[in-house]
Amino acid sequence: MGYRAGTGARLCLYLRRLDWNQVTCQDPITMKKLWFLIPLLAVTLTAMGQSERVKILFDLTSKDPAVHQATIRHVTAMSEAYPDAEFEVVMYGGGVFMVVPEQSSVTKEVRELVARDNVKFVVCEMGLKRHQLQLSNLIPGVGSVPDGILELVQKQAQGWGYIKEGGL
């Protein structure tokens, strides 16, 4: 009994080239086994590929305290829901004021989040200079990067997810 030429037959020919001579293209039972194993292998490989640690960037440029509070809510909820994920809040422009204790409405919350292993807050050094601030003026534990926009671009190129805070 022959088996019609198609994807399965091409697969058999490919397997034969790999010296898998025990595969018989004429046997429908062998073909059914292959059609079962191939999707199973694909699902297994897909699941294995998704075990990579999730990494998410939050882009904050707003000076608005309501946006700061929303950012804190998002980072808090996500870091609690996904403790194995990594989160980084990148602040530049007016966003730097979120981590200036005298001007921030979320100082306490930032201090708590900075203490977590999976959450990081970083400020653009150019933004600090523009607003005549220094790292010592910020909430302890907040870091800095030379360029906030470049930080976002480089991290996205490394596979980090991106969330723009304070959008329309």
Task: Note down, in words, how this protein is organized.
- The protein folds into 2 domains: 7-49; 55-164, Hypothetical Protein Ychn, Chain: A, CATH 3.40.1260.10.
- Helices cover 44% and strands 15% of the residues.
- It has 6 helices and 5 strands; from the N terminus they run ααβαβαβαβαβ.
- It has helices spanning 7-17, 28-49, 65-81, 107-114, 125-130, 148-157, and strands at 55-60, 86-91, 119-124, 143-145, 161-164.
- It has a 5-stranded parallel sheet with strand order 4-3-2-1-5, with helices on both faces.
- The model has no long low-confidence stretch (mean pLDDT 82).
What's the domain count?
A: 2
Tally of DSSP β-strands: 5
What structural class do the secondary elements suggest?
Answer: alpha/beta
H and E string: HHEHEHEHEHE
Distance between the termini: 65 Å
Q: Order of strands side by side in the largest beta sheet? A: 4-3-2-1-5
**Strand portion, in percent?**
5-15%
Largest sheet: 5 strands, parallel
- Gyration radius (Cα, Å) is 26 Å
Number of helical runs?
A: 6
| Rounded mean pLDDT score | 82
Shape: globular
CATH homologous superfamily designation of the largest domain = DsrEFH-like
